[in-house]
Amino acid sequence: MQISVEHPIAYYAALSMAMSACLYLFVSVTRNVGSLRKRMERWMAESERETAALGSHIASLETRVGEWAGRTSDVERSVAGLSAVRRNQLPSTGVDANQRTQVLRLARRGDRAEQIADELKVPKNEVDLLLKVQRAVVRAL
Question: Nearest-CA neighbor of 106 among 125, 126, 127?
Fold first, then answer.
C-alpha cells in the first residue's frame, strides 16, 4: 500500500506520537497491573493471617465448649441425684399447675371428682376444692 505524503516529517511526527501514546498506555497499564497484583498479594496474605487467627480462636472455643459440656453433664447428674433424693423425702403436696389444668378440662368434659382424682392420682379433697374455687370464680365474673 502506497501512501503519498507531501511532508514526510509530518508523517514521521504523527507516527512517533502514535507510538509514544501506545508506549505510554502500555507502561501505565503495566504499572496498574503490578500495583493491583501487589495489593492482591497483600490482601491474600492478610486474609490467610486472619483465617489462621480465626482457626485458632475457633479451636479454643471448641475446647471451652467441650469443657462446659463436661461441667454441664456433671451438674445435670448432681441435680438428678438431688431431685431423686428430694422426691423420696417430700410427700406429694397436691396438685401442680399442669394437673390443675387437667382437672378443669376433665370437669368441663363432665367427669366426677372421684374419676378425676383416680385418673390423675391426686387426693379427691383437692380436686373438690379446686372445682369449688373454679365455680366461685366463674360466679364472680
Answer: 127
Q: Express as a percent the part of the chain with pLDDT over 70.
A: 88
SS (H, E, C) 21-73: HHHHHHHHHHHHHHHHHHHHHHHHHHHHHHHHHHHHHHHHHHHHHHHHHHHHH
The CB density around residue 112, as the number of other CB atoms within 10 Å, is 13
Domains and CATH numbers, the chain: 92-141 (1.10.10)
Report the distance separating Cα 28 and Cα 18, nearest Å.
Answer: 15
pTM of the model: 0.38
Kindly tell me if the per-residue pLDDT of 38 is higher than 90.
yes
Please spell the DSSP secondary structure of 75-133, one letter per residue.
HHHHHHHHHHHHHHHSPP-S--HHHHHHHHHHHHHT--HHHHHHHHT--HHHHHHHHHH
Residues 24, 29, 35: CA angle, nearest 5 degrees: 125
